[in-house]
Amino acid sequence: MSIKWGIISTANIAQKAVIPGIKESNTGEVLAIASRNLDNAKETAKELEIPVAYGSYEELLADSDIDAVYIPLPNHLHKEWSIKAMEAGKHVLCEKPIALNASETQEMDEASKKAGVVLVEAFMYRYHPRYQMIQELIQSGEIGEIRGIHGAFTFNNASAKENVRYKKEWGGGSLYDVGVYPISAARMILKEEPQAATVHAFFSKEHDQVDMMSSGILEFDHGVALTFDCGMWADFRNRLEILGTEGRIEVPSAFVVSQNEQDHFYVHTSKGTKEVEVPYVNQYALQADAIGQSIQKGETLPFPAKDAILNMKVLDACLTSAEERRRVEIKGG
Q1: Cα–Cα distance between 277 and 293 in angstroms, integer?
Q2: What is the pLDDT of residues 287-308, one digit of tens each?
Q3: pTM of whole model > 0.85?
């Protein structure tokens, strides 16, 4: 039996990436989509060949045929609707950032345990096989000991001033939107939690004082650090570099990939540069299958809700550091 998904919102990320990914997966099908505007829901359902359209989120959650929901609502609504969905017995895939802070994420985790359902933060890139390949390469010693990681995720959407990314009370800003990617990647690669964060940011009066550009450093053990920058008013970049004592790994399109982009990564050592070819996969489909297999077979999630709590603790520290212009220690990692 396939997992029957409901989509709460007609957001662009749902239409362009997650819904096609679920359809391409081996475990899932999209049964319904909901919008607060029934016409929008019907139009999207027709375009994407989704059987059922609802004019409210409540109606979708009341549908007993729905097993799991994907929630790409604005950030400040993630906790509310994730908890409502879980209380209705639905498994939840919630768009990143999963909430506005670690405390909200903890509440969501507790709700998932109480309801006996799966709660997952939508970081699709982590399911791409190249990251397993990178981990194996690091473990082989080919680039030596890791000395540092640098990540960058920037784009320019600053002219769209009505975008939800530019509403402070709604969880707007580049740290929430794209900074979470290099942060989560460093934690995944190093398999540990950072001890402190220092972030400098450009807050824009034109964009409700959200951070339009942030540059930061996360302190890990043994003197290793993640240096990163993220922005929504800068040229597009989507990169990750892992620096070792004997070489480095370069991932040109680290987080967002498509059939028209280069999925391959590069290993630079004293022996020269090696291009590591990676077959094209739909990382959204792989994400849906990881969740589907957990639901169907009780398999352990690669990234359970506990990981989301830890990631939000780091993001909390980054936001505090940027706003207060100081180094912030991260406790309880």
Answers
A1: 27
A2: 999 999 999 999 899 999 999 9
A3: yes
